[in-house]
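re: that chain from earlier
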Amino acid sequence: MRAFIAIDLEPGIKEALLALVRDLKATRADVRWAAAAGMHLTLKFLGPVDEGQAARVKDVLSKVAGRHGPFRLELRGTGAFPGERSPRVLWVGFADEPALAALQSDLEASLVPEGFEREERDFRPHLTLGRVKGPQRLAQAMTELAKHREESFGAMTAARLTLFESLLRPEGAEYRTVFEVSLS
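^ sequence. v structure.
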């Protein structure tokens, strides 16, 4: 299975993000927009994982979760990767939270002995709103996105880590929860 570790978002936050996506969609930009099911904070993309690896990942997640307590997670601000002049991914960011950075760093380090390579890029917590397919009406979408650059889209207590399976479909990815562990 193709897997990743994430923090799922509360329904109220997903609703706020879906309202933003509706505003962005109204620009009719050539962007593949995120659906509610895809709204989560990815902490670590694992790639292909077999059943044996999944069991070991569950053990690692349980140990990591035991070292970290629940913490506040706030979705704040918008932007684009690699930049607003030539955007490929439109996103909502997360307020700076040392507990999130510590958790993600612990996950990275703890998964290396299980054969998962450490991510070379710095962790930049974000939620993907859409992936640019073409230039049509993109300037309008970027103007709309910029209106929300400093906005808060809600806060929640992050209390669980989830291993998701990502099933690639022609209409977009579908996500299935494999297991969850609670932060203690």
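The longest helix spans residues 51-66.
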